[in-house]
Structure to design on (615 residues):
């Protein structure tokens, strides 16, 4: 070993490298990795496990209960940190590794950084096949970890200890690139984890990473500015990129100076506070009437940091102005060019500030801005009616949302799937940036509680409230235990509608029979009577079931100062949803059916397709 090298195992080199990566937040240099989630097995316990033990006082290792869940927690940590900090996850080989693939896809879709370190087979292949190794009959280089390739921004299989040097450097470049940001998978062969190498000391030098802010191209900028100058009825769609760029103030400045209404995607909600007069609220399939009415007439849409998925665009049937122009302000060219948009490839904050200055003196038509504000006033009346308290035996999701909002007004809200995201997108009154945490890019059932844990670790002073349906709770609830172990208190509001209520409603809307969604409509011998409060209590949570909205509000107030995670269960109506707002969504209806309900739905579907924009 030369004087300028240090002899370490590959796993020790990984651990040491992670501790030396830093970033600057609010003027303070801090570790860029907030910790490592780990579930150990024979594919990582001897290598990575021993290495993490050696740095446990510098980089904490958190024990999770489920590999997919721990990766959800790590991803939520990055999202709640606006991608400024992130985490790593390590598993054994085989099923432990594959359990993280769904989470990798979630991170990939949402453009969120997470370092996945699954164990892999022996590089030397001498003991093959090892326990939990799936063999490919025709390709000796393939392992199950190849499944990570399509859902990773960067993938590498480490078969020699020195390969970790370029691999980790590439990983950090991906994490800190606003355009390429996403999951990185470094598949660590288990024998190589334990092999030693003389690593250059320079590999472990402290590195402070800064997120770049790309400036707009002059020609693209000129074209975008010209389009806005000609606009009479412009709108802004605020996507998640506004939050990741920390561009909320720039968005506010632009909107106020030029009188442009703002509407928010699921990822972008909380870009402006709900009570800002130019915040029209949600847009698209789950949009407010205020936003969608404007979107239908808009002649220019400035889409900031949005990937313009179908829920935002109403399956591209929302925008009805024949002369519509879309400006895609995005760090990622793939997103900036979508649907024949005028691309403006740049950082959201930089781009908005530049447009704000270039458009000095220009404003949207005053009548357009006035119409927007009047539409918002009308929407707020409808939203307040939907969330008002009730004595109904089975309240709606909206009425539960109203109770949570009244009892915990300043909470950071976490959710992900089912019917709740649509109701929350419309109705939740978000305050500061990041106070609304919705995973709807992949809409992953089971994210909610694990995601809440990640949010709490990233923002320990926040009052984190998780709203989750019974179906999603049944899929993944194990991180209640982790939250209690880690002292990361959550308040979990569990809405029990006895099945998959959201998809049941969609089934009915497309002419389908009630089938296999609500528990009563499934093939069963005995209907289960699930005591969710008892289940949560068995995992160590404070738990109670309430029978009314009034009891729910009381329980929320009483558990706000509790010393550990609390789960509050309430039965809800599976059929009621908020009628106000919303827009058509393209869900294909069968062209041929023996059932008249399906044929009628098909006829309506074909008619609706005529409003879709092509190209």
């Amino acid at each position: 070993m030369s004087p300028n090298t240090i002899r370490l195992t590959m796993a020790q080199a990984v651990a040491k490298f992670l501790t030396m990566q830093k970033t600057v937040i609010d003027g303070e240099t801090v570790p860029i990795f907030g910790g490592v989630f780990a579930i150990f097995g024979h594919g990582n316990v001897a290598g990575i496990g021993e290495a993490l033990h050696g740095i446990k006082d510098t980089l904490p290792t958190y024990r999770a209960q489920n590999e997919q869940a721990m990766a959800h927690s790590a991803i939520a940590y990055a999202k709640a940190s606006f991608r400024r900090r992130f985490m790593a996850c390590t598993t054994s080989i085989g099923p432990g590794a594959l359990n993280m693939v769904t989470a990798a896809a979630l991170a990939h879709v949402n453009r969120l950084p997470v370092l996945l370190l699954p164990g892999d087979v022996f590089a030397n292949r001498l003991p093959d096949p090892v326990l939990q190794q799936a063999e490919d009959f025709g390709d000796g280089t393939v392992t199950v970890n190849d499944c990570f390739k399509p859902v990773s921004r960067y993938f590498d299989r480490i078969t020699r200890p020195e390969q970790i040097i370029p691999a980790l450097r590439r990983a950090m470049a991906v994490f800190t690139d606003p355009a390429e940001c996403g999951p990185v998978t470094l598949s660590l062969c288990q024998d190589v984890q334990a092999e030693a190498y003389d690593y250059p000391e320079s590999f472990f030098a402290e590195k402070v990473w800064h997120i770049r802010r790309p400036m707009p191209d002059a020609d693209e900028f000129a074209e975008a500015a010209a389009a806005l100058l000609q606009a009479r009825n412009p709108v802004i769609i605020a996507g998640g990129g506004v939050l990741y760029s920390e561009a909320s103030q720039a968005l506010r400045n632009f909107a106020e100076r030029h009188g442009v209404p703002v509407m928010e995607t699921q990822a972008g909600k909380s870009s402006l506070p709900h009570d800002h007069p130019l915040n029209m609220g949600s847009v698209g399939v789950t949009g407010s009437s205020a936003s969608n009415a404007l979107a239908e007439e808009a002649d220019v849409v400035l889409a900031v940091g949005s990937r313009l998925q179908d829920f935002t665009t109403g399956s591209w049937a929302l925008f009805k102005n024949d002369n519509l122009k879309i400006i895609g302000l995005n760090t990622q060219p793939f997103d900036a060019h979508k649907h024949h948009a005028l691309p403006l490839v740049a950082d959201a904050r930089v781009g908005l500030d530049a447009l704000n200055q270039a458009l000095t003196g220009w404003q949207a038509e005053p009548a357009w801005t006035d119409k927007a504000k009047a539409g918002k006033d009308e929407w707020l009346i409808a939203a307040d009616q939907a969330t008002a308290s009730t004595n109904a035996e089975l309240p709606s999701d909206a009425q539960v949302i109203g109770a949570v909002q009244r009892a915990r007004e300043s909470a950071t809200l976490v959710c992900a799937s089912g019917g709740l995201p649509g109701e929350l997108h419309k109705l939740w009154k978000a305050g500061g940036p990041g106070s609304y945490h919705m995973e709807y890019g992949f809409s992953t059932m089971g994210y909610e509680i694990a995601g809440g844990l990640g949010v709490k670790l990233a923002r320990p002073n926040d009052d984190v409230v998780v709203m989750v349906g019974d179906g999603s709770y049944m899929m993944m609830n194990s991180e209640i235990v982790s939250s209690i172990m880690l002292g990361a208190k959550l308040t979990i509001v569990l809405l029990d509608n006895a099945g998959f209520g959201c998809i049941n409603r969609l089934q009915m809307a497309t002419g389908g029979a009630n089938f296999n969604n609500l528990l009563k409509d499934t093939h069963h011998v005995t209907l289960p009577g699930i005591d969710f409060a008892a289940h949560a209590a068995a995992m160590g949570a404070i738990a109670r079931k309430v029978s009314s909205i009034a009891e729910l509000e009381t329980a929320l107030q009483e558990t706000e100062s509790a010393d550990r995670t609390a789960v509050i269960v309430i039965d809800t109506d599976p059929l009621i949803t908020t009628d106000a707002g919303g827009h058509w969504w393209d869900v294909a209806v069968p062209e041929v059916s023996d059932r008249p309900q399906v044929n009628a739905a098909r006829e309506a579907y074909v008619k609706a397709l005529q409003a879709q924009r092509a190209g």
